[in-house]
Amino acid sequence: MKFSTKTRYGIRAMIEIASDSSGNGVLQKDIARNQEISNKYLDHIIAALKASNLICNVKGKKSGYILSRPAGEISVYDIHNAFENGICVIDCVGLNVHCENNGSCSAQIFWKGLNNVVLEYFKNTSLQQLLDKKNELQLVS
Question: Alpha-carbon Rg of the chain, whole angstroms?
């Protein structure tokens, strides 16, 4: 199982935005520089995060980005869903997939269980927890 670059960079961008305490928001060029993401690629990530109502501009188009709600209320699953619908560790456990062995395959039961573990981990991990971990790591280094 592999998560998309948009999801991975989206999480990093959200941590960057959540880290700002200035009240002015974080400029896209600063996110791009600090996270080493091309500004052009970051355009797509920012657009998806805005469309999902996870971030907004502070004062208008050319201003910095802030979270649309507190970091503790945004899950990693919310961020992931800005780019992809749901989580599926293997095709046969997908929502709209018909497997001929459905109901008679013990391997499928394993994959569904793993999928549920990953899904719950994403849902139960908040952006605030990631921000707290970032702050802990900065204290150590």
Answer: 17
C-alpha to C-alpha distance for 102 and 36, rounded to whole angstroms: 44
Asked if 83 contacts 48 with a C-beta cutoff of 8 angstroms, the reply is: yes
Confidence at 36, pLDDT banded by 50, 70, 90:
very high
The domain ranges of the chain are: 5-140
b/e sequence 75-95, b meaning 16+ C-beta within 10 Å: bbbbbbbbbeeebbbeebbee
Does the domain at 5-140 match CATH 1.10.10.10? Answer given as yes
What confidence tens digit (pLDDT) does each residue in 67-112 have?
999 999 999 999 999 999 888 888 877 777 777 777 778 888 898 8
Please report which residue ranges of 67-105 form alpha helices under DSSP H: 76-81
Q: Coil, strand or helix: which one is 56?
A: strand
Would you give the DSSP letter of residue 57?
Answer: E
Q: Which pTM does this prediction carry?
A: 0.90
